Amino acid sequence: MALLRNAWWPVAASAILCAASGCWNSHGKGDGATDTDVDSDADTDVDADADGDSDNDVDSDGDTDTNTDGDCPYNCLPDGMCAVIGGTAHAEWTCGSPADECCQVGADPDSDADTDTDTDTDVDADTDTDADTDTCDGAMEGDYDVNNTIDLLALEGFSEVTGDLDIDETALSNLDPLACLEHVGGYLGIHHNLSLIDLSGLASLHDVGKSLIISQNAIPNLDDLASLAWTGQELSLWQLPIPDVDGLAGLIAVGATIYLSANSELQNLDGLSNVVLAGGAIIVEECTSLADISGLLGLESFSGPMLLIENNTSLATCQAIELRDHLYELGWSGDVCIQGNLDDGCDDDAADCS
């Protein structure tokens, strides 16, 4: 069965995809200043005391009198009498009484050398070293082909490719330089890359304006496409060694055909359970390990010309019939081809097969 392409689906930067549960606007185009920040912590000086002395003191020991022994202006004479220093004795005063007035025998010079040696310098060097630069911005204008590592590196840091992005017949093992990519305005094709085992570079991809086609690569799963929300046209997966499509659990709308073909290890379509809109045909063929397509029963809107479920030898025919009936309940009418699947007692619907 040839891949059906539904040309009626409008694709533009302002496209809106709608189903019963709501509508999804396409992204606004990115530019070089989308986060508008210069300094992400927005500080000028993290030293809140803003002075030249980090402990905010004038005299760190806080004294005003460098004489700390508390001496008095009296002297105790050898005869036990007490006199004002340098003056006459007072008979009524005896040494030690009153305690506040008489002191030790002999003159008490103030020899307490109490100097403030507290050297307090402010060594708090507060400079704002927060280097916040926006490393993901800008758009690669027009179509772009990736044939080798040099081509791939040229896309590093871009968040958008406005036209088609084709990664075809390369020796690449990963797409890491695309880590910033969020939007592809046109078609995104990843095919015939027999060494490609890792899609982690597409972890930020949110939407594809036209078709997303992934085929004949060595990738073991689609887990790195978890951020993908919609495609404007086809979702096409064929000849991939993937056991499931769980990495597409974030996908909610496919503008045209859902095409799954010759994925021999694919077992179920649970990862498509959040897709509520499909604008083209549904074609599931020659996926010989596929046993469960109930993930497509979440569709709320289907307007394609055909439902084709064919030659999936592990898939019960009754499941295909259940999907057909679900689409009928949505008000759909179109061609149906259900044949060559596991015979479980349900009759094929092969009237439109050719």
Q: Could you estimate the helical fraction of the residues in percent? A: under 10%
Alpha plus pi helix count: 2
The stretches of 5 or more residues where confidence is low (pLDDT under 50) are 1-15, 25-70, 105-114
Mean residue pLDDT? 79
Number of DSSP E strands: 22
Question: Main β-sheet, in a few words?
Answer: 9 strands, parallel
Q: How many distinct domains? A: 2
**Radius of gyration from the CA trace?**
41 Å
CATH topology of the largest domain: Leucine-rich repeat, LRR (right-handed beta-alpha superhelix)
Classified by CATH, the class of the largest domain is Alpha Beta
List the secondary-structure elements in sequence, H or E.
Answer: EEEEEEEHEEEEEEEEEEEEEEHE
Q: Tell me the distance between the termini.
A: 9 Å
For the largest sheet, list the strands in their spatial order.
Answer: 7-9-11-13-15-17-19-21-22
Structural class: mainly beta
Plain-language structure description:
The chain starts with 15 loop residues before the first strand and ends in a 15-residue tail after the last strand. It folds into 2 domains: 18-34 and 137-339, Ribonuclease Inhibitor (Leucine-rich repeat, LRR (right-handed beta-alpha superhelix)); 71-102, no CATH class. It is built from 2 helices and 22 strands. The protein has helices at residues 149-153, 317-329; strands at 16-19, 22-25, 74-76, 81-84, 89-94, 139-140, 144-146, 160-161, 165-168, 183-184, 188-191, 207-208, 212-215, 230-231, 235-238, 253-254, 258-261, 277-278, 282-285, 301-302, 306-310, 335-339. It has a 9-stranded parallel beta sheet with strand order 7-9-11-13-15-17-19-21-22. A hairpin with a 4-residue loop joins strand 3 and strand 4.
